[in-house]
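Morning, I've got a small favour to ask if you have a moment. Here's the protein in full, and shout if anything looks odd to you:
***
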Amino acid sequence: MTPRRKVFGIGFHKTATTSLATALRSLGYRVTGPNGVRDPSIARSARPLAFRLAERFDAFQDNPWPILYRDLDERFPGSRFVLTVRPSDEWIRSVVRHFGAESTPMREWIYGVGAPLGNEATYLARYVGHNQAVREHFRERPEALLVMRITAGDGWERLCPFLGEAVPDMPFPHVNAAAVRDSEAGSNDPSD
C-alpha cells in the first residue's frame, strides 16, 4: 500500500485549525497538533522536533507547522498544504480574547512579541504577511495549496477533492477549540 501524502495545516491558530484536525482524523489521518511546547529555545529546536514528528504522522495542524511550511514543502515533496483563514478583524479579536496578556516562547518566536494584548498591530501584520507569503510560495503549484475559510462554511466539498478522498456521510466538524482543550487538560499525547 502506498503511504498517504502528508497534509500540513498551515493556518495560524484561531482559524479553525482544530476543526481541520478533527476532519482529517475523520478521514483516517494520523494527526498531531500543538504539543504544549514552552521551551524558550523553540526557535532553535522547532525544525528538528517537527521533522521527527513528521515521520510519525500523516497530518499536522497548529504550531509550529505554519512557520515551517517552506522547509516542510522542500523536505516532503508532493505533500498537501491547507491554509485556514478568517477575516483579519475576527481573527485578532479571537486571538486577544483567547490568549490576552499570556506570553509564550512560541508566540514570541512567531510574532516577535509574546502576548497579543497591546500588540494587536504586530500580530495582524504577521498574520496578513504569513497568508500572503504562503499564497506566493505556492503560486506556481496551486494543486499543492488549498485555502479554506472553515468559519465561513468551507468543508468536505473543498477538502476531500483536494486530498483525493471521498466525501464522508457526516457533517463537517466545527469544533470549539477551547472546549476541546479543557476536556483534554493534562494530556501529553502528541496526537491531541
